[in-house]
Amino acid sequence: GAGYGTLASRVFMFAAMSLVFFYKPLFAKYVDIAKTYKPEWQKIKKLISMGFPIGLQVLLEVVAFALSGIMMGWMGEIPLAAHQIALGLASITFMIVTGIGSGTTIRVSHQYSHQNWDGMKKAGTASVHMVLFFMSISALIFALLRFQLPLLFTKDAAVIELAAVLLIYAAIFQIFDGMQVVLLSILRGWADVTHAMWYAFIAYIIINVPISYLLSFTLDIGPVGIWMGFVFGIGAASVLYFARIRQLFAKHKTTLD
């Protein structure tokens, strides 16, 4: 049922956006251009050179979270169910921050195209403050309502008890998760995508996954170890992205506050 629902929503989104694009006067000139478009291979090559690192960076993050689900499955049904509850709730706040991040990329890239370093700094700083505020509130909600929120998903006492523990760690990494999203968005607006790809590899594949496995299985901490790995991995990504931004601004004789 969930699969059919997801498929239906994706088909609807495609149809709705296609109707808007092809029939709204605002986009008429782009439709006309598309009809007579001839491939410009240099521009296509440039798009690929930017798009590939971004795609790989996203893949690395997805792989880390997918492996966490697999490792949770090794521990049994209850840990996996609790993991899905905590991850589902964290994903809600993540999507909101992702929207802010998309706007950040647009604003930063616009200022970058005009070589307005002060404008880039202001756009990035404003976004960081917005995300910090939102994720702080989210973390507080996760911590205070950690026993109530899982009730939206299940009545199983064992699952609720474990999910409540995992939500504590979800609350901790809310700040780091929000920061890595918005800082990564700033780097994308700057067209600095290759460094971000390698930082994602370090944070998620070199740090996150091994620490999750080590804590959960080698040190026998259990399900909590997976989420401790998230804190270390996402925290590392935030630090690396921030360090890169400071390095870039330093080249233009300005720094982030």
Question: Would you kindly provide a written description of the structure presented here, covering whatever features stand out?
Answer:
This protein is mainly alpha-helical. It folds into two domains: 1-37; 49-250, no CATH class. Helices cover 84% and strands 0% of the residues. The chain has helices spanning 2-23, 28-35, 41-75, 77-113, 117-144, 157-189, 194-218, 223-250. It is globular. The chain starts with a helix and ends in a 7-residue tail after the last helix. The model has no long low-confidence stretch (mean pLDDT 91).
Rg over CA atoms: 21 Å
Domain count: the total is 2
Shape: globular
Structural class: mainly alpha
Mean pLDDT figure:
91
Q: Tell me the number of strands.
A: 0
Task: Give the low-confidence spans.
Answer: none
Percent in helix: over 70%
Helix/strand layout:
Layout: H1 2-23, H2 28-35, H3 41-75, H4 77-113, H5 117-144, H6 157-189, H7 194-218, H8 223-250
Helix pairs in contact: 3-4, 3-7, 4-5, 4-6, 5-6, 6-8, 7-8
